[in-house]
Amino acid sequence: xxxxxxxxxxxxxxxxxxxxxTAGASHAAFAQNASDSAALDRLPDxxxxxxxxxxxxxxxxxxxxxDMVDLxxxxxxxxxxxxxxxxxxxxxxxxxxxxxxxxxYIEADTNAVxxxxxxxxxxxxxxxxxxxxNGKIPRLNKTQVLLFGNAVPGKPGELQLSAADxxxxxxxxxxxxxxxxxxxxxxxxxxxxxxxxREALHVPGNLVGEGESQFFFTTQGANGSAPPVSxxxxxxxxxxxxxxxxFSEIVDQSAQPPRRDTLAWYRLACAxxxxxxARAAISSDETDRRIAAEDYxxxxxxxxxxxRNRVTK
Length: 313
Known about the structure:
Blueprint: H1 3-25, H2 28-31, H3 65-74, E1 77-88, E2 101-115, E3 122-130, E4 144-151, E5 159-161, E6 167-169, H4 172-186, E7 193-204, E8 211-220, E9 230-235, E10 242-246, H5 263-269, H6 286-303
Antiparallel strand pairs: 1-2, 1-4, 2-3, 4-5, 4-6, 7-8, 8-9, 9-10
């Protein structure tokens, strides 16, 4: 057997083996194809890295801020790599492949691990990419990519993507946003996941139009903890209604709303129910319950919608 033929045979065998491992280990790898999201339309030519000076805004690589946080939460490994070689898998070896896409077995060089264990100098993984308009498969050699996934147990250097389309063309903006999200997620005081609105009450003040509404949430933090999260809405005659969120035991009237596209904003905007649940209202007076509901609606308007392009499971 000639050496070139032996190399091709070994590559295809490894790709098929990785297909079996990935499909058997987790349905998540193929449950969400690229058609479910505004994912990679085209992998551009490699971009020379440079130090970004500001956090990016808006969508990046077709992903909203909420999409990126969802991916970061679902991905124990985030790595920057450079594609070295690609091999197309036959349709029979590509279960769950969406129409108009091709599944590739990719070998890449590790550039940087943003989060996760040491992966070694090279990586192997499967990814679905769209076929070009002319019917050709894009050539990805030397392209820098950002990968969201998980290491395959017992298989050094093998990576299972969090979904079939979670290989993105690297850019300074994408890396900056991803690093900012990961930094917030691993911080000791990271805002916890909000499970439910537990209590809502309004306490009127001494003057007409004066009062304060308070909202308390059931949360889920790291290691089974339940860190406190509360929102206070303050009304004063002749002044705009203002509110703020507190991630501590203290209900602080000077607290501020979270800045958009931060983890605190994500925890609220992407978790709060669209209307205040009646069971959460604990004020005895009907007027106070109505004001609390109005203040809750104000919070939702100020937060704005939690936009997602990806389909959440």
